[in-house]
């Protein structure tokens, strides 16, 4: 069962573009795969050409923080465990860096001790839905159920009793999805730095992870990484050290006070 779930996550993650936006039409309206123009050569990233910027802005979703401030927000998608999260947490603890881990129902059931550790060490646990569906294809009531189940499971397991940040599964969203999740008390968190890191059979080494992240570094960055990646685990300490050396400060996503869209 776990193998099937893992393969589903890999395939659906691959469907969510991190560099180019795309859209499909469903009965309830247009659904988008989040994409963006990557930061390159110091130029800030942009979603202006993707067709959904007005929707993201309308619902106060997060794409960028304050680009005048050298703050970085580290986020991880954790749909299942691949043996890398302990190393990532060790590095974050040693470096004093906070993060948010967006977890699924599978993760909270399968890895309760890691979820407890995330909260105990000052990280936020965010919502990645209970069963990782394409939320643009399910009704609002099911969206709320998916989110409530994760929130309640984490509240039962840890001292974190509230949950206000959501990463839509597969990076797929619509105006209705953002409205329904906002009504449920969530801020959707997208990203401004990412690379193809989710395929555990296509890891290319810590140097590749380091180069991929550092080449996109910019003020106000929201970094998306997948905690299943051994490349990320191996590169984490160096990414943190060298980003700090460049004058960047790592902050938790609930410390983001200015949202920018471009």
From TrEMBL:
InterPro entries, per the entry: Glyco_hydro/deAcase_b/a-brl, NODB_dom, Polysacc_deacetylase_ArnD, Spore_PdaA
Pfam annotation, one family: Polysacc_deac_1
Protein name: Peptidoglycan-N-acetylmuramic acid deacetylase
Keyword Signal: yes
EC number(s) stated in the UniProt entry for this protein: 3.5.1.-
Source species of the chain: Paenibacillus phyllosphaerae
CC terms in the record's Gene Ontology section: membrane
GO BP field: carbohydrate metabolic process
Signal peptide region: 1-23
